[in-house]
Design a protein that fits this description.
Length: 99
């Protein structure tokens, strides 16, 4: 078990090291940079969509779903203010009030 953890830590470190160490002769081309620019939104979407829409019973699109209501409010605040702090406070605050 410990060997597996150490090997995974080494793999994670060295894959990051290739991109972060400036003296290595490895450059990412413009097409790869454009391709990698989609990874963060894809990963974040894969995280939040099941949290907001899926419950034990299945897909929940009811407005009484506190996750959905808070997400809609956060989207509106983010669109209007472009401020991550207001967006986070409104989303979390509304979720805590509704939950």
């Amino acid at each position: 078990m410990m060997t597996t953890i150490l090997l995974m830590a080494c793999i994670t470190f060295f894959t990051r090291y290739l991109f972060l160490h400036h003296q290595l002769p490895f450059k990412v081309g413009p097409k790869m940079q454009q391709f990698l620019s989609f990874s963060a939104p894809a990963v974040l979407t894969a995280i939040w969509v099941p949290i907001v829409f899926v419950t034990d019973e299945g897909v929940n699109l009811d407005w009484q779903n506190p996750y959905l209501s808070a997400a809609v409010a956060a989207i509106i605040v983010a669109y209007k203010t472009h401020n991550i702090y207001y967006t986070t406070l409104v989303g979390m605050g509304l979720f805590l009030i509704l939950n």
